[in-house]
Amino acid sequence: EGFGERKAKAERMFSLMDGFLKNDPFSLQKDILHHVEYTVARSRFNFDDYEAYQALSHSVRDRLIERWHDTHTYFKRTKPKRLYFLSLEFLMGDAALGNGGLARFSACQMDSLATLDYPAWGYGLRYEYGLFRQIIVDGFQHEQPDYWLNFGNPWEIERIHVTYEVKFYGTVEDVDRNGEKHEVWIPGETVEAVAYDNPIPGYGTRNTINLRLWAAKPSNHFDLEAYNTGDYINSIVNRQRTESISNVLYPDDRSHQGKEMRLKQQYFFVSASLQDIIRRFKEAHNNFDELPEKVALHLNDTHPSLSIAEIMRILVDEEQLDWNKAWNIVCKIFSFTTHTVVAEGLEKIPTDLLGSLLPRHLQILYKINSNFMEELKKRIGLDYNRLSRMSIVEEGAVKSIRMANLSIICSHTVNGVSKLHSDTLKMRTFKDFYELWPEKFQYTTNGVTQRRWIVVSNPSLCALLSKWLGTEAWIRNADLLTGLRDHVDNTGFRHEWKMVKRLNKMRLAEYIETMSGVKVSLDAMFDVQVKRIHEYKRQLLNIFGIIHRYDCLKNMDKNDRTKVVPRVCIIGGKAAPGYEIAKKIIKLCHAVAEKINNDADIGDLLKLVFIPDYNVSVAEMVIPGADLSQHLSTAGHEASGTGSMKFLMNGCLLLATADGSTVEIIEEIGSDNLFLFGAKVQEVAELREKGGALKVPLQFARVLRMVRDGYFGDKDYFKSLCDTVEVGNDFYLLGSDFGSYLEAQAAADKAFVEPEKWTKMSILSAAGSGRFSSDRTIREYAERTWKIDPCQCPF
Ligand code: B1N
Predict the structure, then answer these.
(1) Interatomic CA distance for residues 375 and 602, integer angstroms
(2) What are the respective helix, strand and coil percentages of the chain, to the nearest 5?
(3) 251, 296, 681, 716: which has the highest count of C-beta atoms within 10 A?
(4) In angstroms, what is the span from residue 14 Cα to ligand 1's centroid?
(5) Overall fold of domain 79-445+782-786
(6) What distance in Å separates the CA atoms of residue 210 and residue 72, rounded to the nearest whole number?
(7) Is there an atom of ligand 1 within 6 Å of 446 CB?
(8) 640 CB less than 6 Å from ligand 1?
(9) Structure confidence at residue 218 (pLDDT)
(10) Rounded-to-10 torsion of CA 311, 338, 295, 249
(11) Can 79-445+782-786 and 452-772 be said to share one CATH topology?
């Protein structure tokens, strides 16, 4: 078709439309009824709540699709440099396609990218089973599958025509190309990747970006041989097996080393995404030299780092670029964020596994490494220890590929997730690389989106903020929250602030009662620790503190009890299914709760509730209702921590160690406005060295004894848990931090009995939370790391 014909066609189409879908209540109602009848296929006079929800979602979906199209047409036309955010996990909410902080941070970043009009896409995997549901039976965690697609998903758009073949296994063979020998991969298995698009609307802009998730489908190429030989049934069974690649999210939020299926997932995701990205690039540009000006690829941790080998394979083997030319291009497009602190936590892939699944990629990795080693020798000489530390290939009992080294070598920027984290990376974890390339190392402190964590989850606070700030602009510009400082001395304002907290506590109290049957007093301090269960996050310290509090109450004169601040202690979080100690912590929490909550002598003075199945929806309920929240990681172990930022925004006071992003929170709100305790990061190593000679307060020994002696039952079961914190074995330093932990708790009690003081601290916490908006994070990344500009689709 010529231009004239296309234009005429477009005009004809447009005359058939009523223009954009309208957002007034009447138009929405009309659409909802339309979808009740024609999408849900119920009569418009007879439908239930769920069907109403479906019809409503479809009406919203229609609007999203319209904006999605406009945004992408605009991007296509203006050809800005695009960011592709590659992550194996996105914890959106309803879709729990991720584990914890890393995945929720990805989701917050997508929201900010859309709101700030950046030309960005997210790429991920469409797991059929998201993170398991946690149910508690007898105090023990059990895992149930989260088959979230059971009732359909109106928020995704299936693109049955956007598919790519992804290959696995096979061999590498030499071929002759213009008289030169070249290596080419002859794969053994083919799987098809199908795109599912999830529109991500920005706030206060028409821009709607895309989160493209891949699902595996058996390819039609598959097993033709078997059909021909008549093994029809088996070939169908095999087809089913290939679909299993995108079946299930791995539930460990640390390591998955050596699991073939996990590696398959990673490559499946990487290969489909890169084919899609390169296709889009080639549609608009005809020279790969332009790639670094038009494409930024971001590696969210090392999980997508096979991208490096894959893009080299595409450029060299398929596009026939010279190796050095390809390498120079590739080194200009990747940036990398690591979320890990300690070297032992870094991802490694055994070469045996990689070589059998992806033989050509292993060769490419070896070549990248040998080139790097040559260059490195020229720079640092024959320091073999250092050379072997920096090598991509780890020799040893299990020869492996170090995905972090690969990512650092190939990325132009290596990001830490907080200042403290980045210092640790430079001084310890990646010291060798920092000395080689200091300019590569940056940090961009994490953030969370106020749209989800205030506007959606705390509507009453949202209204209060807009009223007293005199504008809703803080929803797009969280820095404006500092304006709350001007009102902190206004009693009327403080009164309204307290009312909002009370309302949210009421909502949470109702939830607690339905979930656990425990009735809690709204006058008590709601003290919350919710996050994945990990030894380093020290939920055990919290539980030991509660036992100590209970013990004190029991031994206290009845008159003195009236001076005690009543507490509702709330703990929630999932343990990785194979993480035994974490599961014992959950059980201990229930055992202690059972004892305390049924002690009539204690009543409302102390309650302990474990909230099951902690997830985004539960967080939306719990966080606004918290007075105090605990962030107890041993200093130097939490790379950033983002839960604390959500609590901060909701006017919840923090009780925390000087770890991860807390250090920067203190900078922002001042140490008077939170309760700090514990060893500092530079003291930790020394304390550990003391081993058995470490001083531990008597109260700690007493609490430990109570658990060991079976005061809470299950003595034998808890033995191994107790052993982990016994003097001489207490790697995470619970014993040595216990004294200052109790002091911080006492300070919190003291502040709580002065409501005006407490409320001021609460207001100043929220007022300082603007810096921890993911909008700030994304702007920093965009300007410093990705070098991308906003590209706003005109209305
Ligand atoms: O990433 C968050 C940080 O705020 C947390 O401090 C950090 O612990 C978390 C393998 C991880 N680090 N590593 C992971 C997740 C899944 C997986 O398969 C590792 N998550 C974090 C955001 O920066």
Answers:
(1) 69
(2) 55, 20, 30
(3) 296
(4) 48
(5) Rossmann fold (3.40.50)
(6) 9
(7) yes
(8) yes
(9) 83
(10) 70
(11) yes
Q: How many angstroms separate the alpha carbon of residue 103 from the centre of ligand 1?
A: 8
Report the C-alpha gap between 622 and 554 in whole angstroms.
Answer: 29
Nearest Cα residue to atom 4 of ligand 1: 641
Local structure of 23: helix, strand or coil: coil
Buried b (16+ CB within 10 A) or exposed e, 421-430: bbbbbbeebb
Q: Does position 127 have pLDDT exceeding 90, yes or no?
A: yes
Averaged pLDDT, 238-257: 88
Q: Is residue 638 in contact with ligand 1, taking CB distance under 6 Å? A: yes
pLDDT at residue number 8: 79
Question: With a 6 A CB cut-off, is 639 part of the ligand 1 pocket?
Answer: yes
The answer, yes or no, to whether residue 226 has pLDDT greater than 70, is: no
Using CA atoms, how far apart are residues 186 and 188, in angstroms rounded to an integer?
7
pLDDT of residue 477 exceeding 90, the answer is yes
**Around Cβ 279, how many Cβ atoms within 10 Å?**
11
Given a contact cutoff of 8 angstroms between Cβ atoms, the answer to whether 480 and 473 are in contact is: yes
pLDDT in tens, 423-435: 999 999 999 999 9
Structure tokens that stand for 261 in this block: 């299926």
Residue 5 has pLDDT above 60, yes or no: yes
As a whole number of angstroms, the distance between CA 297 and CA 317 comes to: 20
Fold of 452-772: Rossmann fold (3.40.50)
Name the residue at shortest CA distance from atom 22 of ligand 1.
Answer: 102
Residue 417 has what DSSP assignment?
S
Residue 534 pLDDT > 90: yes
Query: Domain extents for the chain?
Result: 1-78, 79-445+782-786, 452-772
The DSSP string of 276-313 is: HHHHHHHHH-S-GGGHHHHEEEEEESSTTTHHHHHHHH
**Quick one: what percent of the chain has pLDDT higher than 70?**
98
- Is 0.95 topped by the overall pTM? yes
What is the average per-residue pLDDT within 613-624?
Answer: 98
User: What is the model's pLDDT at position 1?
Assistant: 57
Q: For a pocket test of ligand 1, which of 89, 91, 99, 102 has the largest count of ligand atoms closer than 8 A to its C-beta? A: 102
Q: What percent of the chain has pLDDT over 90?
A: 92
Catalytic residue positions, numbered: 339, 531-532, 537, 642, 646
Pairing of strands 400-402, 171-177: unpaired
Lowest-confidence pick of 214-218, 535-539, 603-607, 731-735: 214-218
Rounded to an integer, the average pLDDT of 508-534 is: 97
- Span 639-663, pLDDT tens digits: 999 999 999 999 999 999 999 999 9
Is ligand 1 within 6 A of the CB of residue 107? no
Residue 356 predicted with pLDDT over 80? yes
Q: Distance (Å, rounded) from C-alpha 19 to C-alpha 14?
A: 7
254 lines ligand 1 (CB under 6 A): yes
